[in-house]
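Exercise 7. Predict the structure of Protein-L-isoaspartate O-methyltransferase from Castilleja foliolosa.
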Amino acid sequence: MPSTSHYSSLSVIASRYRYRAPLSLSFLNRTRRCLHHRRFILTPPPPLAAAATFLSRSSRLPNTHFFTGNHHFSRMERFFTGSGIGRNKDMVTHLQKYGVIGSKKVAEVMETIDRALFVPEGTSPYDDSPAQIGYNATISAPHMHAMCLELLEDHLKPGMHSLDVGSVSQAAILVGTGYLTACFAVMVGPQGRTVGVEHIPELVESSIKNIQKSAASPLLKERSISVHVGDGRQGWPEFAPYDAIHVGAAAPEIPPMLIEQLKPGGRLVIPVGNIFQDLQVVDKNMDGTLSVRSETSVRYVPLTSREAQIRGD
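Solution. The predicted structure, encoded as tokens:
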């Protein structure tokens, strides 16, 4: 457990950088946890002063991990996000170098599915930052995709069923752009089943087109991938139960329908919370009970209705 002096130093730093809100033990603990989980960006970890300054404005950053590269608060992060990585493999190599990717299988699938095929023209596809894809939706930063793939790797084996859910285009497998849908499909193979759910029809259409351009195209033709228009909060019961469920938008609480559709022995990864959010890992035990842990602090847009998303609520 961190020492009192550790919390005190964070308090001094935060006050020095004019963070006016009361500094509760919960806030300081979250700050410490954020710093801990960004160890892959900086060695040594980023200066606490920079971290405190960044946290004071983090609520303005949708769909991104707290210390994602839009705000260049360190020399190393400037290098990582702004160095003009020109190829998909280089992006994966950088994520391996900084400890985001440790699994050979995850590295292989991210090399196989070229991120450039899933982002709008004019967007830097390999920068470690989220990108707007229209309809108040975004594609997550590469390091968040890598983190979720690492967490779900053991539940994305050949022949398994996967679901990706989210208002910003991730349901049953990252719909919105189709990137994670394609990654999941490659991992579970033609014997498995990958389902994507998105409530914006135009994003469903674009995600299918993106997948058709990628290495996952044969799986789409074989119908082991399916992408549907629907409310991701309800999952997709037709192909349940699922070994792996990923949610790409934050819910105030874990949707019961997703728990119901999770197979015993399966895993759900979902951001939970409002202003402060945790990326929660939910394992369904063989007897149906749940084991829940928080992996790290994150900042995602809310899992919401189609109408609210269009309005930008």
